[in-house]
Write a structure and sequence with these properties.
The chain is built from five helices and 17 strands. The protein has 322 residues and is an alpha+beta fold. Strand 6 and strand 7 (85-92) form a beta hairpin. The radius of gyration is 19 Å and the shape is globular.
Length: 322
């Protein structure tokens, strides 16, 4: 049994096909997400779940029409570079709590649930919110270089792809690849590191044409920016951590500023995947990056996916986050 989620990743049209036979399928067993984008009409990315959701073996791998790919290295940053529309890989759908993220150290960089001190991580509910309050994920082909001290924040990069919050009306699915319009950025300082949070909206959202910058947020999504700042400040407090702080006194920077940050972290990624920069804890294997010393044959990538466990029933969520 499988659930196929099909979306045209452009502003023109959206189609959806569901191939399913039970309510369990609708919870995500062996689900695939196929995304086409306007610029690369023949390109598609399929999210393929393996293992048991909410268990240590759970992974979400990605494929294109030729086989497995890395969402970090092989999905292009730009869906439409001329229009400055970016691809976003959704790690955590809105209203969910499981802290999922692209696995930097594993071959093909699948999405997995983060583990801390031997336990799977869940974000606590912070009143009045439930889980993440937007679709949350990352831009592919970006890297916040920990060797680089940002002159504006005074802190080093956090060694991750750059994070994105997507504020559209649709609740995404884990593994969706969206085409998003970048509106601005917040500079969270997380345990002494710069942790950029880009603010974006799905280019297909009915409000996308009304939003061009963070200055438009209050009239189109009133209260959202204030709630976002509150959420990021408080979400670790229930776990005994201090309140988070922001650079720039919590000011949301505009779209032009955000695009400069994206260009910078894309260049950091280029240095990483080319071998000019070193990060021993990041798997740089890819199937498509021209000039990369870490490019591997397609059959090697296919073997890595074939070795993953088969899809299985999800585990029960903790009572604290249901």
């Amino acid at each position: 049994m499988s659930l196929a989620r099909v979306a045209i990743s452009s502003c023109v049209s959206v189609s959806r096909q569901v191939i399913a036979g039970s309510s369990h399928c609708l919870r995500g067993l062996a689900s695939t997400s196929v995304v086409f984008n306007q610029k690369h009409r023949n390109k598609m990315f399929i999210a393929e779940e393996r293992g048991s959701p909410y268990a240590p073996d759970y992974r979400v791998f990605f494929r294109d029409e030729s086989g497995p790919v890395s969402p970090l290295h092989d999905i292009p940053l730009w869906a439409d570079r001329a229009r400055r529309l970016a691809h976003m890989v959704v790690e955590v759908p809105r209203w969910t709590n499981a802290k999922m993220e692209i696995s930097l150290g594993e071959t093909l960089n699948p999405i997995k649930q983060d583990v801390k001190k031997g336990a799977l991580r869940y974000v606590s509910n912070v009143f009045p919110h439930h889980g993440y309050i937007w679709n949350y994920g990352a831009l592919p082909q970006t890297w916040e270089d920990p060797r680089h001290v940002d002159p504006g924040t005074g802190a080093r990069g956090d060694n991750d792809p750059i994070d994105v919050i997507e504020i559209g009306s649709r609740v995404a699915q884990r593994g969706d690849v969206l085409t998003v319009k970048i509106l601005g950025a917040l500079a969270l300082i997380d345990e002494g590191e710069t942790d950029w949070k880009l603010i974006a909206i799905d280019a297909r959202d009915p409000d996308a044409e009304r939003l061009s910058d963070v200055a438009d947020l209050e009239k189109v999504r009133p209260g959202l920016l204030r709630a976002t700042l509150e959420w990021f400040r408080l979400y670790k407090v229930p776990d005994g951590k201090p309140v988070n702080v922001f650079a720039f006194d919590g000011e949301a920077k505009d779209a032009a500023f955000a695009h400069r940050v994206i260009d910078e972290v894309h260049e950091f990624w280029r240095a990483l995947v080319s071998g000019e920069a070193e990060a021993s804890d990041i798997c740089k294997s890819n199937v498509s990056v021209a000039g990369s010393a870490h490019r591997v044959p397609r059959d090697q990538a296919a073997a890595a996916l074939a070795a993953a466990p088969p899809p299985a029933q999800p585990q029960a969520l903790p009572d604290t986050v249901v």
